[in-house]
Design goal:
The protein has a domain of 113 residues. The chain has 13 helices and no strands. Helix 2 runs parallel beside helix 13, helix 6 runs antiparallel to helix 7 and helix 6 crosses helix 9. It is mostly helical and 276 residues long. The radius of gyration is 18 Å and the shape is globular. It is 49% helix and 0% strand. The longest helix is centred in the C-terminal third of the chain and has 18 residues.
């Protein structure tokens, strides 16, 4: 079964946001990185945080941690150069930190559309993935890193990492413990993270297969090499078979607003593994 790239492209251009269309163009059509950065900056506020529904689940215009976490995840996964996009982001994160290292969300986020699972907290409170990816882009301040290390040691243990049963959610431990290199018990925390991702991947239902490639983006990545022989190929076969009649791929929650980005991620995985 062959991928219909043209139909996938048409879907993203019909249904995607302007940011998603520019990201698709940059990834697959030699589109302008400068234009992509300009569009990302439209989501940035004067306080150097991001909002305005950049992450589909939280539409508040005010700067919030979830929007920055999402942007950093996209930039990491697509290997997008940062340019000036992240200028000031570390200082903004530090300004939102509580004494224990957790993150505050503007109370006004609840005044705007948001998915029910964010209703209680008003958005993301965990700093680990955000700070880890700021480190990867050389944008994290030393004080921000130290505060997040303390938070991580207080909130992650090998046993709690291994208790995770949802493949997608492994990104918190994965992003942070593979970004730092001087933390007590780091080897055990990394091994627990690897073991958890492998266990979750092997148990994941078919509609979650695309999540695996956030942890195994390339054939030579650590997780890809750790999984049983042939497993990645079976997952890629499922991705190929998952293209819908309109050209897109569904996200695991079957939320239409996430179909364009899911489609972009699937196409990127298929290209990196030589299936596109």
């Amino acid at each position: 079964m062959a991928i219909d790239f043209g139909k996938a492209r048409e879907f993203v251009y019909r249904k995607g946001t302007l940011f998603e269309r520019a990201l698709f163009a940059w990834l697959f059509e030699a589109g302008s990185l400068e234009r992509l950065h300009q569009l990302i900056l439209c989501y940035k506020n004067a306080d150097d945080g991001f909002g305005h529904g950049l992450e589909h689940d939280l539409k508040a215009p005010q700067s919030n941690p979830l929007a920055l976490e999402y942007l950093l995840g996209v930039m990491k996964h697509t290997e997008m150069p940062a340019g000036c996009v992240l200028d000031g982001a570390a200082n903004w994160v530090e300004s939102q930190m509580n004494a224990d290292g957790s993150l505050r969300n503007p109370p006004t986020t609840r005044d705007y559309p948001l998915e029910w699972w964010w209703r209680e907290q008003g958005g993301q409170t965990m700093p680990d993935s955000i700070v880890a990816n700021l480190m990867r882009f050389d944008r994290a301040t030393p004080s921000l890193v130290e505060k997040t290390k303390r938070w991580a040691l207080a909130n992650h243990r090998p046993e709690s990492i291994l208790a995770n049963e949802w493949l997608f959610m492994a990104y918190h431990a994965f992003d942070f413990f593979f970004a730092v290199d001087d933390l007590p018990g780091l080897d055990d925390l990394r091994q627990a993270t690897i073991d958890n991702i492998v266990a979750c991947a092997l148990a994941a239902p078919e509609n979650q297969v695309d999540s695996l490639f956030a942890f195994a983006p390339q054939p030579d990545s650590l997780i890809a090499l750790t999984l049983p022989e042939g497993f990645i190929d079976r997952c890629l076969d499922l991705l190929v078979a998952g293209q819908q009649e309109q050209g897109h791929w569904r996200d695991q929650h079957d939320l239409p607003q996430w179909f364009p980005m899911t489609t972009i991620n699937v196409l990127l995985a298929l290209r990196r593994y030589g299936r596109l």
